[in-house]
Automatic annotation (TrEMBL):
Helicase C-terminal domain segment(s): 216-367
EC number(s) from the headed UniProt entry: 5.6.2.4
Keywords assigned by UniProt, alphabetized: ATP-binding, DNA damage, DNA recombination, DNA repair, DNA-binding, Helicase, Hydrolase, Isomerase, Metal-binding, Nucleotide-binding, Zinc
Protein name: DNA helicase RecQ
GO molecular function, one term: DNA helicase activity
Domain HRDC, first and last residues per copy: 527-607
Top-tier EC class: isomerase
Organism: Antiquaquibacter oligotrophicus
Length: 650
């Protein structure tokens, strides 16, 4: 342990208000402080940002952070300003004058951290050459992987960092990457000799739930009303049309919801995103382009109304819930049409055979997670190479599903597919094949003489919904395939062993939903006598946030307010011992918090900030050069439309 450890711990305590590092944070920070390179895999909410922020504060010079999103830059700068760190960004939303002010601050050594978009790094290279550099941090490093779920072509140029500034330490960070993706990150960013830190991928506060899709909008509404009333959350949808429809449905049912997708005017996107960050209890309905880098700690649920295309994408998206460590829900409604649609999109996707095979492998892993009868968390962590025990906090642990012998139903269904093709030279989708098995009478069956097939009516022992589950699970296992634009069903090379009886087909029977008590068993709520104070503190915090024009969590996070509610400090010294209360926040908010705890009226919101500005002393949230709020017409990405990287979804 070197002498730099003490300065790092001091910064952690005095600036950020924490008394110890978590997990591998200390070792990562020490590596970079000592001038070494690091590749860091740490789950969302695990404290990745501190791993480069503290070294930037300990080392001489300015830490340069490569970040793909304007929203993330703004959010990080606001958060850092609130604890007294000198931070700024350079991006396309700024005026020439604002950029020059930031550049001057950098050159004069007045910045601790400078945020840049990857496509702006080359243009800023001459500026960086003239300043003192503490480190380079490459955030969301998985964007460099062309086989990953979130590829950004501009990340491929970041190898120039080592070429141009070989003595400046680099730290690349991501919340999700398989071993293959990790290897590609190291190769493309020239980090072959960097020390790698792989933290546990487990997010124990998140409860994973996947249920059969029946009436998905009603299922979503039930989730929000019974478990997450008044909570902030994100709902992910496959298409722009579905985003609009879902947002309208929620609003009609009394839930404050906003849409977000690339088809919206950039000003509307920026305003909706700003409201989501700054208001409590708002639901954002979005395509999957929304969310990367959104540092909102109190997102209590992430819901998917459509099947994600990969486990990595699912993990990244669900990881936006519960960054503050409090109980949160990851919920997915999944049905037969999801499988058909994803298989069809892969068949029609651009790219060579290797690319389509890669997409299929990603989807197969996602389907395996959906169909598992074991612990979902075990399956999820296993995908990233981490062994674990059953968690007791997912739907399959709380209400274990049953299995049943589906060999005969599988044979009936596959036989119908075979007979239609061989006897009628016809192929159909799942709906019509199920109609044949159920013995229904309609025009298509009559015209095609499908009531003369030997399998007509032999499946009446199962309901239509049960048959859809059979089809879905056969597709998930590759015992059945989707073909063509219309998604017709065809047999696969492995179907023959099922038809011959050589391969049994155990199927998953949908379990009853776990009780509300079981679903919320992940952690106890606040003690009853602490709740009134907690709500008063939230009300005070909301007023402060509105007065300063910042998200509420930048004032204090829920976890800190809970700590105050339970311990009820009466002095500044006692308040300083609560996690998340650093020197700057203690100075700025301490007396007001103590007043709320004591039942007194605190000072008017924002008064300490205004006093600091009037006296010429910059307060944590006072305007600083380059810190102007994002304009209404600012695009959320720097020089790239938000859904461009997701052709499979849009």
């Amino acid at each position: 342990m070197t002498s730099a450890t003490a300065p790092a711990l001091q910064v952690l305590e005095t600036t950020f208000g924490y008394d110890s590092f978590r997990g591998q944070q200390g070792e990562i920070i020490q590596t970079v402080v000592d001038g070494g390179d690091a590749l860091v895999l740490m789950p969302t909410g695990g404290g990745k940002s501190i791993c480069y922020q503290i070294p930037a504060l300990v080392r001489e010079g300015t830490g340069v952070v490569i970040s793909p999103l304007i929203a993330l830059m703004q959010d990080q700068v606001d958060t850092l300003a609130a604890v007294g760190v000198r931070a700024a960004y350079l991006n396309s939303t700024q005026s020439l004058e604002a950029r020059r002010e930031v550049e001057a601050a950098f050159l004069s050594g007045q910045l601790d951290l400078l945020y840049l978009a990857p496509e702006r790094l080359r243009a800023a290279a001459d500026l960086l050459d003239r300043g003192r550099l503490a480190l380079f941090a490459i955030d969301e490093a998985h964007c460099v992987s062309q086989w990953g779920h979130d590829f950004r072509p501009e990340y491929l140029g970041l190898s120039m960092i080592h070429e141009r500034w070989p003595t400046v330490p680099r730290i690349a960070l991501t919340a999700t990457a398989t071993a293959a993706t990790r290897k590609e990150i190291a190769q493309r960013l020239d980090l072959g000799t960097a020390k790698q830190f792989v933290s546990s991928f487990d997010r124990p506060n998140i409860q994973y739930r996947i249920e059969a899709k029946a009436q998905p909008l009603q299922q979503l509404l039930s989730l929000l009303r019974t478990e997450h009333a008044g909570d902030a959350g994100i709902v992910y949808c496959l298409s722009r049309a579905s985003v609009e429809k879902t947002a309208d449905f929620l609003v009609e049912n009394g839930i404050t919801a906003l849409p977000y997708h690339a088809g919206l005017d950039s000003g509307v996107r920026a305003r909706n995103q700003s409201r989501f960050l700054r208001e409590d209890g708002l639901v954002m309905v979005a395509t999957i382009a929304f969310g990367m880098g959104i540092d909102k700690p109190d997102v209590r649920f992430v819901a998917h109304l459509d099947l994600p295309k990969s486990v990595e994408g699912y993990y990244q998206e669900t990881g936006r819930a519960g960054r503050d460590g409090l109980p949160s829900t990851a919920w997915l409604a999944y049905g037969l049409q999801d499988v058909v649609q994803q298989r069809r999109m892969i068949d029609q996707s651009e790219g060579d055979l290797a690319h389509r095979r890669n997409l299929s492998a990603h989807l197969d892993s996602m389907l395996a997670l959906c169909e598992t009868i074991g612990c979902r968390r075990v399956q999820l962590l296993q995908y990233f190479g981490q062994e674990s025990e059953p968690c007791g906090n997912c739907d399959t642990c709380l209400a274990p599903p049953e299995t049943w012998d589906g060999t005969v139903p599988a044979q009936k269904l596959l036989s119908t597919v075979v007979r239609l093709e061989r006897e009628r030279n016809q192929k159909f989708g799942a709906g019509h094949i199920i109609d044949i098995l159920l013995g229904k009478t309609n025009d298509r069956i009559t015209r095609g003489r499908h009531d003369a097939l030997s399998t007509y009516g032999i499946g009446q022992d199962l309901s239509e919904q049960e048959w859809r589950g059979v089809v879905r699970q056969l597709l998930a296992r590759g015992l059945l395939a989707v073909q063509g634009e219309y998604g017709v069903l065809v047999i696969t090379p492995t179907s023959g062993s099922v038809l011959s009886g050589d391969t049994p087909v155990p199927l998953r029977r949908e379990a009853a939903r776990p009780s509300k008590a079981a679903r919320r068993a992940v952690a106890a709520d606040l003690p009853g006598d602490a709740m009134p104070l907690f709500e008063k503190l939230r009300e005070w915090r909301a007023g402060e946030a509105r007065a300063q024009g910042v998200p509420a969590y930048i004032v204090f996070g829920d976890a800190t307010l809970r700590g105050v509610s339970v311990t009820r400090p009466t002095t500044l010294a006692e308040l300083s011992q609560i996690s998340g209360v650093g020197e700057k926040k203690l100075e700025q908010y301490g007396e007001a918090v103590l007043a709320v705890v004591a039942g007194r009226e605190p000072e008017a919101p924002g008064s300490q900030v205004r006093d600091a500005v009037a006296s010429g002393t910059p307060a944590a949230t006072a305007p600083v050069a380059g810190f102007a709020p994002e304009p209404d017409d600012a695009p959320p990405f720097d020089d790239a439309p938000p859904d461009d990287a997701y052709p499979l979804y849009e």
